[in-house]
């Protein structure tokens, strides 16, 4: 497989991830309830992580690894924080 | 823009990246298409485990071939995400269960209150009807109580 073909393949993978982004964003906007939105946000975090790893592969540098790690950390913390908030039952729709 | 890899690693990286992105797309599709929240909890974990594993492996192959020594720090990323994703998903599912239970309880309490109110209204209506019937009989007998009560 030549370098040019690999570039096309990686671009196709990025396009797939972009489509996944759109789907998660639709679920985030549509709801219907708060937990669905939180889960869609978590999935968005994960897709962002994947696309940054893919960007790291495309550029061939290891600079993107740290940012992927930070995104994984913030995604976990934010999702569990909001889940805790929903659990405490202060805001019931 | 692509890394300058020899043919065989390039093939491996291409297949892994495409597969990982496809699995992530499948997860997002499931998130979009499933009907209830408890169904929708499952698909994103597909992207977590398989998608990230494939992409991390592709990244490992890329940086190992380019750097001419084995680079495996993507394992750390995979380890961390695989460890934390079930925790956050379980917290979220528990929150959803809690909210559903609270809502069902509120609904049942409201239905109970409504049923009690309806019963009371029916009893009141029956009593009023009875009183009206007694009054009518009073009128029919010209107010002669003896005719009614014998």
Q: What does this protein look like?
A:
The complex is a heterodimer of chains A (93) and B (150). Chain A has 93 residues and is an all-alpha fold. Chain A has three helices and no strands. Chain A is elongated. The termini of chain A are far apart. Chain B is an all-alpha fold. Helix content of chain B is 85%, strand content 0%. Chain B contains five helices and no strands. Classes of the chains: A mainly alpha (93), B mainly alpha (150). The interface between A and B is large, with 57 and 58 residues.
Layout of secondary structure:
The complex is a heterodimer of chains A (93) and B (150).
Chain A: H1 3-30, H2 34-59, H3 64-88
Helix pairs in contact in A: 1-2, 2-3
Chain B: H1 7-33, H2 37-40, H3 43-67, H4 74-140, H5 145-149
Helix pairs in contact in B: 1-3, 3-4
């Amino acid at each position: 497989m030549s370098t040019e073909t690999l570039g096309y393949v990686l671009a196709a993978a990025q396009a797939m991830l972009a489509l996944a982004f759109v789907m998660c964003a639709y679920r985030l906007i549509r709801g219907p309830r708060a937990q669905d939105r939180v889960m869609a946000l978590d999935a968005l975090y994960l897709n962002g992580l994947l696309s940054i790893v893919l960007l790291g592969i495309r550029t061939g540098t290891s600079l993107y690894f740290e940012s992927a790690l930070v995104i994984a950390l913030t995604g976990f913390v934010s999702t569990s924080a909001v889940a805790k908030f929903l659990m405490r039952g202060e805001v019931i729709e | 823009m692509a890394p300058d890899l020899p043919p065989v690693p390039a093939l491996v990286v291409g297949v892994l990246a495409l597969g990982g992105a496809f699995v992530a797309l499948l997860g997002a599709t499931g998130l979009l298409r499933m009907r209830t929240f408890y169904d929708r909890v499952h698909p994103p974990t597909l992207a977590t485990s398989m998608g990230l594993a494939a992409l991390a492996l592709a990244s490992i192959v890329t940086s190992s071939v380019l750097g001419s020594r084995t680079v495996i720090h993507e394992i750390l990323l995979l380890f961390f995400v695989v460890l934390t994703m079930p925790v956050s998903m379980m917290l979220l599912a528990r929150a959803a269960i809690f909210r559903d239970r609270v809502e069902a309880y509120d609904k049942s309490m409201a239905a109970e209150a409504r049923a009690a109110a309806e019963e009371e209204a029916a009893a009141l209506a029956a009593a009023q009807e009875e009183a009206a019937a007694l009054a009518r009989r009073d009128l029919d007998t010209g107010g002669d109580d003896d005719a009614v009560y014998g």
